[in-house]
Amino acid sequence: MSGTEQKVAEYIKEKFGALGLKTRIDEVGNVILEQDGVCDSEVFYYISHIDTVKPYIKPKILDDFVYGRGAVDAKGPLLAMIDALYESRNPCIKVYGLVGEESDSRGARYLLENTKKLSNVVIGEPSNNQICIGYRGRILLRIDCKGQNQHAATSSQVNPIQYLTNIILLMEKIADTLGQDKVLVTPTKIVSRSMSNVVPSKGQLLYDIRFSEEKIANELLDKLKSMIPTNCSIQKISYLPPVEVKPSDILVQSLARSIIKEGLKVNYIKKMGTSDMNVLYPITEHIVSFGPGDSKLSHTPKEKINIKDIMVASSILRSLPAEYSRIKSRA
After folding, report:
1. Which of 5, 34, 51, 73 is catalytic?
2. Which positions ≥6 away from 5 have C-beta within 8 Å?
3. Where in the chain do CATH 3.30.70.360 domains reside?
């Protein structure tokens, strides 16, 4: 689970260290794997994450599928990356298993704060072995409303729960105006503490907001601020900007050629969620997201991944550096 990744990191370090790879764990718990030797060309950073979400699902293998929490998101993509390194023994490939992706992205933020530049980055997330070129941005928004403690039988009330309920309806109207295809507003938590027969003195509402463009997010917040009651306040708890790369990018083109080499059709997709691609984009020259598994199964009780898809992804990632070199030599 996110926050308790130490045993997983140590297992990966010891297991693949015994198989001849150079392995280490950094200050925040990220596990790094590489091949000894000198890289005489571009370096490729294959970056996935080792944490998962609750609840735990006991793993099992049945009919070529691995079932269990994290099978899709993102042990399958990470295993494909490690296997690509192990089978190729390419010193130009470095694999990172990051911590905290499902919570605060502390593993990716550590790289962001302590790395000047990463050349070519593939983020390991489930995409059915297709190319993900973009993720939406995310705002975690907190709304607090103040009220007045009163008996629940009092006819005239200043009730923060009612204010927060009205704000939920207001947010839906604003999102409809901006376009549900551009912004998605989801209330995830509402809290007020009082006895069952007492109007609470305060209430809190958390929102998960996903948006396609920063100007859309700013417009949403500006409209909300201008329309909420004076006894309510807004605070951004966290913010991740959206990210999108072009299909013409050399890393994306190289990945597409590697996919075609496996006899697969290339599709470019954009995801509604976020990933460490959003976090690491500012320090990368080229970045893309790719991996085996159906992302619709992430975080669900039916999480599973096809072993064959992991092996196909590994083969694609093994050939990626060579395809990159071919394209670059012709430029």
Report:
1. 51
2. 29, 50, 51, 99, 100
3. 137-239
Closest CA to 289 of 323, 317, 310, 260: 317
Q: Is 249 a catalytic residue?
A: no
CATH top-level class of 6-136+242-330: alpha beta
> CB of 81 within 8 A of CB of 28?
no
pTM score, whole prediction = 0.91
pLDDT band with cut points at 50, 70 and 90 for residue 195:
confident
Identify whether 36 is a catalytic site residue: no
pLDDT recorded at residue 3: 81
- Catalytic-labelled residue, pool 5, 83, 101, 102: 101
Q: How far apart are CA 217 and CA 310, in angstroms?
A: 36
CATH class of 137-239: alpha beta
Higher pLDDT, 21 or 153: 21
Instruction: Find the length of the chain.
Output: 331
